[in-house]
Amino acid sequence: MEASNHYDAIVIGAGPAGLSAGIYLSRARRRTLIVNEGTVGGQMILTHEIANYPGVENVSGYQLANIMKKQAKSFGCDIKSNTEIEQLDLSNKLKSLTLSDGKKFTAESVILSPGGRSKTLGVPGEEAFKGRGISYCATCDGDFFTDKEIVVIGGGNTAFEEAVSLTKYASKVTLAHKSSRFKASDHAIREAQNNPKIHFIMDSAVTSFFGNERLESLEIKNVTTNETTQFKTDGAFIFIGYTPNTEFLINLVSLNNLGEIVVDSDMGTSIEGVYAAGDSVAKRFRQITTAVADGTIAALAASEYINQKTNKSV
Ligand SMILES: Cc1cc2nc3c(=O)[nH]c(=O)nc-3n(C[C@H](O)[C@H](O)[C@H](O)COP(=O)(O)OP(=O)(O)OC[C@H]3O[C@@H](n4cnc5c(N)ncnc54)[C@H](O)[C@@H]3O)c2cc1C
User: Fold this and answer.
1) In this predicted model, what pLDDT tens digit does every residue of 16-36 receive, in sequence order?
2) 158-204, pLDDT tens digit by residue?
3) Using a 6 Å cutoff on CB, does residue 22 contact ligand 1?
């Protein structure tokens, strides 16, 4: 193994969690490599406008991602993007990683920050109107729908809680659910039912989205009668579940039954020297700020671990 292929820390995933970890580790003079499957920035680059990242006004996700990337690189962090992990071995003291181009790297510590993805309906028009009327995040986009009429799709706790939270902005919220029964808790259902702004369409599956520049309507199919109707709307929020990008970690670290990485308060995983951060960990609130905070904690804990292991102080 060439010395240049050995790092103090390898970070997997270059979303806000991984980039923050890279910034903190590199600034602490830890030799750090970030590897990322796609374009640097993660879910941030899917966001046209970020209005809730403190200290930065009117920024696009792409711009914010590039600022974080530049900051990490300025401290000497190496970043390999658009690459895939061929093999990952976390079982030994020295962790090792092989990329799809055959290059092998080792590290004292690893930070896992592969993020996640909202489940999609997979129906026509959904992809085209993502970010142009279709959203998967009420905290991120609710404000853009002030005084508008919107549809919330889903029947679990998240759909109900977010429908209630969206009534702060929207003039009318229609909750569409494909079954006649909800999966949400009684409390969440009662709260939504008692809210005069929320209306319900049951037994109704959304089958298509339509519009021009932005979403204008959706098609709803009644699953008992098969009758389809066109429903005018200014926006649609889809809350049908969330999938962490942790398939490659099965049997490597402890995951819960939702596939989320189980961590302690220092973001430590079930494996010594392996930390996790961001949307892929078991937690309730998934935002850029929470990912950045996780990445910071994971980096500081990893740095301390490397220090103890190698007697390298900063
Ligand atoms: C449309 C949209 C709008 C949003 N708007 C906002 C907003 O306005 N404000 C806000 O605070 N939050 C917003 N969010 C949420 C926010 O983007 C996420 O909470 C945050 O990006 C999570 O950061 P992360 O670093 O944990 O993961 P991610 O951003 O998901 O990044 C993970 C990275 O890891 C990479 N990766 C995955 N698997 C592997 C692997 N096996 N090997 C290597 N790399 C891998 C991915 O390609 C990705 O680049 C929005 C999310 C979406 C989808």
Assistant:
1) 999 999 999 999 999 999 999
2) 899 899 999 999 999 999 999 988 888 899 899 999 999 999 999 99
3) no
- Find the distance separating the first CA and the last CA of the chain, reported in whole Å: 25
Helices (H), 157-287: 157-166, 186-193
The pLDDT assigned to 2 comes to 56
Give distance in angstroms: CA of 279 to centre of ligand 1.
Answer: 7
Strand stretches in the chain, DSSP E: 6-12, 32-35, 78-80, 85-89, 95-99, 104-112, 116-118, 134-135, 149-153, 172-176, 198-201, 204-211, 215-222, 228-232, 235-238, 242-244, 274-276
CA-nearest residue, atom 7 of ligand 1: 140
**Can you tell me which atom of ligand 1 is nearest the CA of 131?**
1
**Paired tokens of 102:** 């055959």
Cα 300 to middle of ligand 1, angstroms: 21
> φ, ψ for residue 142 (rounded to 5)?
-50, -45
Q: ∠ CA 104-108-110 to the nearest 5 degrees?
A: 75
Whether ligand 1 lies within 6 angstroms of the CB of 246 is answered as no
The HSE-up count of residue 128 (CA atoms within 13 Å, CB side) is 13
pLDDT at 48: 73
